Amino acid sequence: MKEVALKVNRLSKKYGKVEAVKDVTFSIAPKIISAFLGENGAGKTTTLKLILGFLKRDSGEIELPAERIGYVPEHPLFFPWLRGKEILAYTLMLYGIAEEKQNALIQNYSEKIGFEAELLSRKVQTYSLGNQKKFSYLQSLIISPEFLIVDEPFSSLDPLSIKKVRELFLELKDSGRTLFLSSHIISEIEKICDDFIIIKKGRIVFQANLPRAKEDLFLIQVDKECVDKRRIAALTPFLKETDSSFEFLLDKSYLQPFEEILREQERPFRRREVNLEKIFLFFT
Amino acid sequence: MPAANRLKVILLISWKKLWSSRVSFIVLLAFVAFLLFFWLKDSFGASFNFLLFFSPHLFLFLSQDMMKDEIESGMLENVIFLKCRYQDYLLNKNLFVGFAAFICVSGLYVVFSGYGLAAHKYSPFFLIQFLAATIVGLYYVYLGGWLSLYVRGGSNVMILIISQALIFIGLLFSATQRTGFIDYLEKGAFPNLASQIKFLAMIILLPNLAVTKNFLGYILEVIVLLVLILIFQKIKIQRLEIKKK
Fold first, then answer.
1. pLDDT tens profile B48-74
2. Does B23 touch chain A (CB under 8 A)?
């Protein structure tokens, strides 16, 4: 069994003088759903394209042992001279999938993502944006990918399709596939992801397992005058400072030492449980 | 993933693109119409010579809109092309476009040769010229492909056609001089190094000259140029990134 489904080590990429991705390091365990989160322009798509080989890295290493990799871009585009069925046939041919299995695969996944199979006889460029996105899913799914990368999985999709895609992700995970979803729609991602990675300005700022993070982390806000910054910094590296307060993520194992610090001061503080959105907003 | 499957997919995508291109059809039909016109209005020989001299241009026209639009549109950001497989596609599509043009030109050549043999007007030298024309055609495809890495749509073809038109204009001016370059061309001999270099440079933009009897030896230059363009194109494509614009 493979230990990691994807390993990225000190990956960097510059566009001219702009560092789009800087020293990005992370790994993804197999058979789970990992979310890659960041604001617009944080470096998510660049990182994905480096992993997929569409862009050349300036430095760093990428280890992606899967043979069958699916990829759904944010705004998929297809050759305007090809019909849907031709693109699917070429994709299946490329991966050597037997002809007798092809129709069943197309039928099965079309139903799962709510794509009307009648559209396949038309040129993909004539589809609506939503159907182009669904077609892109279909193209990736029919090759039975071991590793599926999706950039903005819910963009261009209606609520019903979003629900279907969400269910499909969970089904794929249950069948042993690894999914890597890049998004900034946190509410949808939170419902399905196991691990998450947050990227900001081309750098990884945080990565964790979501259920564990929810259980172990607290978001704390305290007036600046209550406590010395250095004492908090000794407890957590995830510290933010505003004009009047400190905000930080604290592991529950450090909660007691922190409370003791504040008890000396006899000052109140605000402790909140975290969810993915709160963690994301803290870092972005 | 079998390499044969990869090539098959590239072939099918390239073939479908050519098949759906109206411009290619119009060019092919116009070419056949010209051949018929020369045959009917002049002679079989003139028409055959037209075929041999201008058939490389069929290769050239098919090489329009080869790369840049596809690269910058985002069409290559697809499951089919990930893990740098787009490089295979871009490199090999030249060959398939060349092959498609070769099929068209060969068909015409077979028709002309068949008639020529039946009418005792065929010379084996035509076959040598046909092979030379195929090499020149391939050179055009690779040159067009290389240019299309830098310019959009059919601009690659336009650049070459305009350059050739300028060469003709230059030759017309040369004809007004007492010992013009056009005289050397007519004689098939160049008396000095300057005119020799001029001709070598001319072959770069008008390689069809290497199909004519006088200059058939210059096909070697075309072969060298073809190899150089292949190398340049490969280097460029290996460094290429798929960026939407």
1. 999 999 999 999 999 988 899 999 998
2. no
Residues A139, B79: C-beta atoms closer than 8 Å:
yes
The boundaries of the domain holding residue B144 are: 3-239
- Tell me what the mean pLDDT of segment A159-173 comes to: 95
Is B186 a member of any domain? yes
A218 backbone dihedrals φ, ψ, rounded to 5°: -130, 145
Q: How many domains does chain B contain in total?
A: 1
Neighbour-count burial of A260, counting CB atoms closer than 10 A to its CB (0-12 exposed, 13-18 middle, 19+ buried): exposed
- Inspect the interface and report whether the beta carbons of B16 and A78 lie closer than 8 Å: no
The residues near A138 (Cβ < 8 Å, ≥ 6 apart) are A88, A106, A109, A110, A113, A115
A211-283: CATH number: 3.30.70
Mutation to test the A interface, candidates B11, B78, B86, B240, most A Cβ within 10 Å: B78
The average pLDDT across B120-127 equals: 91
Query: Residue A53 and residue B83: Cβ atoms within 8 Å?
Result: yes
CA distance A56 to chain B (A): 6
pTM: 0.88
Please state, rounded to an integer, the average pLDDT across all residues of chain A. Answer: 90
Tell me whether residue B244 is in a domain.
no
Tell me the C-alpha distance between B53 and B56, whole Å. 7
Confidence of residue B172 (pLDDT cuts 50, 70, 90): confident
Give per-residue pLDDT as tens, A226-241. Answer: 777 787 887 888 888 8
Q: Is the CA virtual torsion A102, A150, A177, A163 positive or negative?
A: negative
Residue A114's identity, in one-letter code, is G
